[in-house]
Amino acid sequence: MALKTRSNVAHAALALAVSLSLGAGPLAVPARAEVKPAGPESVADLAEGLLDAVVNISTSQNVKSDDKAPIPQVPEGSPFQDFFDDFFKGEDGSNQPQTVNSLGSGFVIDPKGFIATNNHVIEGADDIEVNFANGSKLKAKLVGTDPKTDLALLKVEPKAPLKAVPFGDSRTMRIGDWVMAIGNPFGLGGSVTVGIISARGRNINAGPYDNFIQTDAAINRGNSGGPLFNMKGEVIGINTAIISPSGGSIGIGFSVPTELAENIFLQLRDYGETRRGWLGVRIQPVTDDIAESLGMTETKGALVAGVIKGGPVDNGSIMTGDVIVRFDGKDVHEMRDLPRVVAESPVGKAVDVVLLRGGKEMTVKITLGRLEDGEKQADPADEATPDEGTTEEGTAPDTEEQALPKNIETVLGMGIGELDEDARKTFNIVESVKGVVITEVAPGSAAAERGIVPGDVIVEVGQEAVTTAEEVKSRVAKLKSEDRRNVLMMVSNRTGALRYITVRID
């Protein structure tokens, strides 16, 4: 009887276990939730409609060989004599030009045959050929280039309208959005890769208008000039550069955003060249020390270090020492924002510029000039930058037999004196520079840390012009009495290039 009872209990337990394992009855274990794969389910339909608009670009360039290596010698009468002569020598016995080939990508932006790509894909090419997805090939001519953004526009003559792709608005794209790249990696032909936008506004020091989209969609050699699409099939970037120690994709690729590229392609198509807006100022970053010295509540904007003579604002509307914080409705968060937004603006457009002057915010109306004209008329002093020639400037001239400046004083680790004719000859300072000359800089001083060198000239202290060493000393003393930690000075180098520098008050 006991055995029967145990048996019945065992059978009941077994039945319950089977019931639970099969998920039957009210005590059933819930089924495991289905795990969906990351990313879009498929981009096949999207890619199918775009592949025909993406092209492979093949270029060739004739390069004259200057190889001075000796030509291999073969025995007289050797059956290889003709081969060696043809391969290593031209008809006149000189080295033959070599043909260098390269591959890249591009995409059709106009059914009439306009094709966008990178400048470095076609730079220096003697022959450009465009290969389409259907196997057809067409010779292309160069319409125009823009090396500053590494963009170029080509033109082919198709027998029928080409499949073109539209531009999208890259400004609406967010970090984490899915994107698709199509190109010609390693010359393999049309290839599709998918990823996300990893970052925006990247500066990789490729040019003055860096504002790259960073993506982890695989981009390799040969993808240059190809399009980066959003999930609507619109071009939101032109694939341009990668970071890779091996040359292959490691998930860090960069694309020129269409907010910058679209207008450039339109200008190249219409004019064969770019026509950028120009403000006519030299600028430098606003550092924390400069912001504090100017009484700014936050570090932002672009500090005007000089106004180009004959430029659009050479009428007093914008002055040296102003901080531009907003341009044509766009905030200028940091210095590099200003050149980009100005360049994107049409030539001749009247814009509002918000700036800080003397601690007060004000708005001025500016009519933009053309950058390309400004680059032609700029004088050497305007084009010089604070960092140019630091080695030469850092070496004090031989003053053994030359007269030193008069009324030498010492302040902030600098020897300063009158900028007279003797001083100009001693330090080779141009006549246009006015102020107080720096005759020596103590090693390890706050001034030396800021890159100040003998021959530099102090033009302003605390945004007030100075002409004597005593004025410099009194202004510094006043700032020190106000418990200021830094002195803001405008300093000119020997050629007249101006820059603002903050020097710590010891």
Keywords:
506 residues; alpha+beta; Thrombin, subunit H; Pdz3 Domain; 4 domains; 7-stranded antiparallel beta sheet
Q: How many β strands by DSSP?
A: 28
Gross geometry: elongated
Distance between the termini: 103 Å
Biggest sheet record: 7 strands, antiparallel
For the record, the CATH class of the largest domain is Mainly Beta
Characterise this structure.
It is a single chain. Strand 6 (141-146) and strand 7 (151-155) form a beta hairpin. The radius of gyration is 33 Å and the shape is elongated. It has 506 residues and is an alpha+beta fold. It folds into 4 domains: 47-65 and 80-155, Thrombin, subunit H; 170-271, Thrombin, subunit H; 277-378, PDZ domain (Pdz3 Domain); 390-504, Pdz3 Domain. The strands form 5 sheets. It has a 7-stranded antiparallel β-sheet. The longest helix has 21 residues, at 2-22.
Quick recap:
The protein is α+β, with helices and mostly antiparallel strands and 506 residues long. It is built from 13 helices and 28 strands. A 7-stranded antiparallel sheet has the order 5-4-1-2-3-7-6. Strands 22, 23, 24, 25, 26, 27 and 28 form a 7-stranded antiparallel sheet that branches.
